[in-house]
Amino acid sequence: MLDGKHILLIIAGGIAAYRSLDLIRRLRERGATVRCVLTKGGAQFVTPLSVAALSEEKVYKDIFSLTDEAEMGHIRLSREADIVVVAPATADLIAKMANGHADDLASTALLATDKPVLIAPTMNVRMWEHPAVRRNVAQLEADGVHRVGPGSGELACGETGSGRMSESLEIVAAIETVLGMGATAQPLAGRKAIVTSGPTWEAIDPVRFIANRSSGKQGHAIAAALQALGAEVTLVSGPTGLVPPNGVTQVNIESAREMLAGCMDALPADIAICAAAVADWRVAAEAGQKIKKNDSGEMPTLSFAENPDILKAISNAGAKRPALVVGFAAETENLIANAQAKLARKGCDWILANDVSAGTGVFGGDANTLHLVTASAVDAWPTMNKTAAADQLAARIAAHFSPPKAEAAE
After folding, report:
1. Distances, alpha carbon 283 to alpha carbons 9, 61, 239, 253, 297, in Å
2. Measured distance CA(353)–CA(377) in Å, rounded
3. pLDDT tens by residue, 332-352
4. DSSP string covering 48-82, please?
5. Regarding beta strands 367-368 and 384-385, do their DSSP bridges make them parallel or antiparallel, or are they unpaired?
6. For 185-200, what is the mean pLDDT?
7. Residue 289 — very low, low, confident or very high, per pLDDT cuts 50/70/90?
8. Which of 81, 185, 212, 220 is deepest in the core (most CB within 10 A)?
9. CA 396 – CA 390 distance, rounded (Å)
């Protein structure tokens, strides 16, 4: 937690600036006060009003504003913070920092600060790999500036490679580490976790398959949340199109049988969370060639076989069984009763039940309404976005593994 911490967030002019809004929310959730400096370029991507609404603080933009200088000078602005965070940190601002330029409020505040500085770079992959940028980053690191990212993946420009700004939770974790709060911020350090995510594709023939509507957003968010708390995470994912979370080892699969093999290869582990929507059945005999339509009007007949039960297999893995096994129950009716029955049938420790009936928008959407079902209780969680739900689950898991507090001596 960041209770009582004061953070100066500098938002520069990159396309990733919109993600600074989520970062502000994450920091506020953890009790931090966030003041923001919005560069001229940053204001082209996010508005001062949106930044002010989320931070609930005045947004600072212009070094030559006499009102701002009378109320909050740039030196005071940078020195009242516990840490200065630049997210996104563009190639231009990195160059200014490395060479001591001070021609706007952001660069002046950075030059005037005596507090730790953390940058979250973002730019095109060719820019990130350019010798000038590499020299500037090396100079900042030599000067003691901390860095988180960038990550790799699909970039806004359409290219793929390094240059993607780190996720909000990764930046939060880096802030906590810089501020010397890493031990409390990473309660799952030393723990290994397996997370399954997305759908499975069960082949009918070389061009057709059976699938479901799972987007993988919840599973990927859970993997990122566990990693942010220090866990070593293996994400076994069906086809989603999502960028793997930074710091997470992703194993890409298609079928349920491949997902089971990926999970078993990742054992032993301390935690297993089966968030994937695994197909219950597959075609018993996949056709080696494309099934052709002819003029007879006859429909092909498909025979099905049952897929392996991944959650049950992990729950009954003997000596390799994780200490905590969590499943998901996506239901369209009798939500709690079906989840409780699944908990008993699979042999897992917790079930997260969610209603995926028509109209809920859970599959493919950004929000979820979950019920945490254990052998002794049902905990109904309010509707929240999938990232927040992942954070809540990760915090619950961290509490599960935390040693009990010693009783106070009488």
Report:
1. 53, 61, 18, 17, 22
2. 13
3. 888 999 999 999 999 999 999
4. HHHHHHHH-S-EE--TT-HHHHHHS-HHHHHHSSS
5. antiparallel
6. 92
7. very high
8. 220
9. 10
pLDDT at 143: 87
Q: Which two tokens stand for residue 204?
A: 């009918």
**What kind and span of H or E run contains 277?**
none
- Radius of gyration in angstroms for the set of CA atoms belonging to the chain, rounded to a whole number: 24
Distance separating alpha carbons of residues 122 and 16, to the nearest angstrom: 7
Residue 157: active-site member:
yes
Query: For 36-48, what is each residue's pLDDT tens digit?
Result: 999 999 999 999 9
Residue 108 has pLDDT above 60, yes or no: yes
The DSSP letter of residue 44 is: G
Token readout for 99 is 């060479």
- Give the whole-angstrom CA distance, residue 261 versus residue 236: 10
Buried b (16+ CB within 10 A) or exposed e, 326-347: bbbbbbeeebeebbbebbeebe
> Can you give the pTM of this predicted structure?
0.60
80-101: burial string, b at 16+ Cβ within 10 Å, e else: ebbbbbbbbbbbbbbbbbbeee
Rounded to an integer, what distance in angstroms lies between the CA atom of residue 196 and that of residue 215? 12
